Each structure stands twice: as structure tokens, then as C-alpha cells.
Amino acid sequence: MHRQENRQGTVWLLAGTGDGPHLAEVLISQGWHVHVSVVGDMAAHPYRGMALEAIHVGALDGSWGISQWLQTIPVDWVVDATHPFALRISDQLNQACKRSGHRLVRFERRMEASGQAVVLGSIADLADQPLSGRQLLLALGARQLVEAAMVARKAGATVFARVLPSPLSLIQAAAAGIPSEHLAVVRPLQGPEPGALEAAVCRRWAITDVVCRQSGGATEALWARLSMQMGFGLWLLRRPAPIAEVPVVNSVSQLLAHLNGKTP
After folding, report:
1. 130 and 231 part of one domain
2. 184 and 227: one domain?
3. What is the pLDDT of residues 212-250, one digit of tens each?
């Protein structure tokens, strides 16, 4: 996608979901100069070939590290498109932008209707659910795995987990006491038929319930679809509320309007 001739300004896009590459493409096409930050090499692959100013891969060393980046990158806007459950980085971005006076906007997917899924206010709420004798698959972030496995076992469930192929995920799975024969180490929506691998995992282990995060996007939609097709229960960990003082947009058109000063 080519950049328009009119130069809009410079955006620092911090991306943590599948929305990031599309956002970058649209911003570039609208004349913005775009810097992108992602957490790892795999996350950087979809940005290859884009006319980015630069891409940063790796951690940013907290709010003071972010402040240092803001001193070296002449940006007009910071766009927080990190994962809705990545609360720490969102808070660090807010603190750094307040110190430096940079303008910050949060991009977050709209909440989808949960359908027949049960929405949990917290992982601790699993303790009150009828899980005795159930085959429960945890499809959560690595940092939530230990607590979720502990609570689910106390509720009487046999625990399985789908984890990402990363050192952190495997370390957390071991800390959660999940045996290797109960682990599916895969990335979501892989293979020629997205969702087929997840369905096969559920069939192999006779999964009766899945716990995932209410993060929106393709992964949540996949579990909702498989729940309807295969008849297992779906439990959604409620999405955290965004930081109240940071403006939030829920679509590409809203983001562009906000960056161009056209929001009310």
C-alpha cells in the first residue's frame, strides 16, 4: 500500500494484536509516517515490505524506557494498539505520554456479543462454576495460566492448556503443573484450514469446556464458533476496562478521524 503525497505527520504504533498490520497499512496509505513496535520477531513478520519509518522488536523497559524512545522519535501521535489484557504496557504508555506531553489514543476492538458464553469477572470466579468432572481447556495468556489452572482444579476440573510456542508459555505451563500430555503448543488459527487444529485438540481430549479471554478478534470468534459446532461450554474472561483518561477508538475510521482532529 502506497503513501499519499500529503504528509500527515508521524505516528508511533504499538501493536499487540492482529489489527496492527492493517492499521499500519491504512495509516501509511493516508500519508502518515509510521514507526511500529512489537514484542517479538514473529509479530514483526506481517510488517515486512511496508513503507515504515522503522520497526522496533522487543521490550521497551517500562515507562522510562518509553520516555527515552519518545525523546528520540519525533512523533505527533502515539497509538496504543496493544492487547486489551496487556494492562502494564498501556499504563506505562499513559505515564510516559503524560510526562512528555505526547498525544495518546487507544485502539481497541469493539466488544462482540458473547452469545451463549459465560463471562467471568475474574479467574477466581471459576471456583464457583460447575466444573466437577469436566475436561477444561485453558486458552489464556501465559501469565494467567498458573492461577487459572489452580482455581479450575479446585473446582474439580481436569485441566488442559493451549499455549504459544514461547519460553514464557512453557515455563508458566510447568509452573501451573500441567503435564506435557495435557499441553497443545500451537499458535491460534494455524494451518490451511484455520480452526481445524483447535477442533482436533478438543476432540482428542474430549474437551467439555474452554476458557479464553474476551479480547475480540479472530481467536475469540473461533472459540465461539467451535463452541456452537461442537457443543462445549465457553467461558470468557472479561476484558479489562481501558484507562479512563485515555481516549478510545474502536475502528479504523474513528482512529483516522481522531488523528486528524475531527472527533467531537
Report:
1. yes
2. yes
3. 999 887 888 899 999 999 999 999 999 999 999 999 999
